[in-house]
Amino acid sequence: MVRAPRSLKGLTIVNGSIEIGEQSGDQPTSAHDEMDTDTEEEQTGVRGKTTMAHIWAMGADSEKILIEVDEFGVPCTKNAATFASFLGVIAKNGVYVPLNIPTWRHDDFTPYKLKCLKLLEEKFEFPHTENTVDWILKNLNKRWRDWKGSLKATYYIPKGKQRVLSKPPKSVLEEQWPGLVRQWYDPRKEELAQINKINARKQNNAHTCGRKSFARIRNEM
């Protein structure tokens, strides 16, 4: 028996359509209620904010951006960089990827994963295969965790929980801020954070190819 990837927990792919599996639950906020992407994105690089405004502006009559994938289901052409950048924008949008849900594998995340995939379907043409959907969700997961790490590095104050709670940043939905801060000050989470920090220092193979992924390089070679 072949098990589906953990990132697809609660989701099924039927005839090229991505659906919620056996779970039930209300759909999260609709797309037109999304956060203002011009104020939501905060990056500290010299390029400034990354909002992908031209992607958000694409309507139902716009031509979708074609995303080609390799034999592993990974985007491998120039458009892959645009696709990946938009995933990074979504990962920082609390309407699509909430900060107050503790882990990516939590059952409460299932309808939000579906919402992200439906948004991508409106703007990109990509294969709805298990490998590609798994890659998308893993990419979103990593970017969401990186975003949470960036927020903690900027706003966390040791033994200053109440002070941190009182000043939610504009880049975060205010109602999600308390849940995120509680995670930071949970003793179990703090212990896990220290373990993860030590493990991160052991990583020796850094990606040094800029926005060009290994999949694109392999495809070009």
TrEMBL record:
Disordered, as annotated region: 19-46
InterPro entries to which the protein is assigned, alphabetical: Probable_transposase_24
Pfam families, A to Z: Transposase_24
Listed name of the protein: Transposase, Ptta/En/Spm, plant
Protein source organism: Corchorus capsularis
Higher taxonomy: Eukaryota, Viridiplantae, Streptophyta, Embryophyta, Tracheophyta
